[in-house]
Design brief:
By secondary structure, this protein is α/β, with parallel strands linked by helices. The chain folds into two domains: 2-119, Rossmann fold (3-Layer(aba) Sandwich); 142-196, Arc Repressor Mutant, subunit A (Orthogonal Bundle). 50% of the residues lie in helices and 14% in strands. The chain has helices spanning 10-23, 35-43, 62-72, 87-95, 108-119, 142-152, 157-164, 168-182, 187-196; strands at residues 2-6, 28-32, 50-54, 56-57, 60-61, 77-82, 100-103. The strands form two sheets. It has a five-stranded parallel sheet with strand order 2-1-3-6-7, with helices on both faces. A two-stranded antiparallel ribbon has the order 4-5. Helix 6 (142-152) crosses helix 8 (168-182). The chain is globular, with a radius of gyration of 16 Å. The relative contact order is 0.12.
Length: 200
């Protein structure tokens, strides 16, 4: 699969690329920070299969991005991704021409399977509410990897929440999930375990 991620948060992009590389070797995924860069890269990448566009893109709107990609690259599958996992947003994404809607808490194994289906011509939209929580053994989500990178950078929970635009309690939930996934006892041990597992 050849994938393009349009997301203005570099840490999420790094986490996404890293998780995909571990979960689906051979996938070519590239990241850009805005729609214009994405459209220009797609012009030069005829083998591009799918573009994933963040709903909140600074001055741009992800739904408008779906439409613009559809006009300029109608053969490229489009997916809207968002930290706001609202079923109403999924409906708006489909109306704007998306073949799928992914919440950022979606487990990476499910995300890869969904992308494979979309690239083959299918669709993937949540049937209801939030995406399911990753089960133990499925690996961290892209959002958890993003939190992990900030923990490794020395950020405290409130700083992580402010930087990612999420609630502090959500940060705590992500860290709790990471502790469970890695078998770590605390934040310091989490970083040791994460490096041993190749997550950092």
């Amino acid at each position: 699969m050849n994938l393009l991620l349009v997301d203005d948060h570099p840490l999420f992009g790094l986490g996404f690329v890293h998780a995909l590389a571990h979960g689906s070797p051979g996938v070519d995924v590239r990241t850009v920070l805005n729609l214009e860069q994405g459209l220009e890269l797609a012009d030069r990448w005829p083998a591009l299969d799918c573009v994933l566009i963040d709903y909140r893109l600074g001055g741009d709107n992800g739904l408008d991005g779906l439409r613009r990609f559809g006009v300029r690259h109608p053969l490229v599958a489009r997916v809207l991704i968002s930290g706001d996992e609202d079923p109403a947003l999924a409906v708006r994404a489909r109306t704007a021409g998306a073949a799928g809607f992914f919440g950022k808490s979606m487990p990476m194994a499910e995300l890869i399977a969904a992308l494979q289906s979309i690239v083959r011509g299918g669709e993937c939209f949540p049937s209801h509410g939030l995406a399911p929580v990753a089960a133990r053994g499925t690996g961290p989500t892209a959002r958890q990897l993003e939190v992990l990178a900030l923990v490794a950078a020395g950020r405290q929970n409130k700083q992580i929440a402010d930087e990612l635009g999420i609630a502090e309690r959500t940060v705590k939930l992500h860290i709790t999930g990471l502790l469970a996934l890695t078998g770590a006892r605390n934040r310091t041990h989490l970083l040791v375990q994460a490096r041993d597992l190749g997550l950092l």
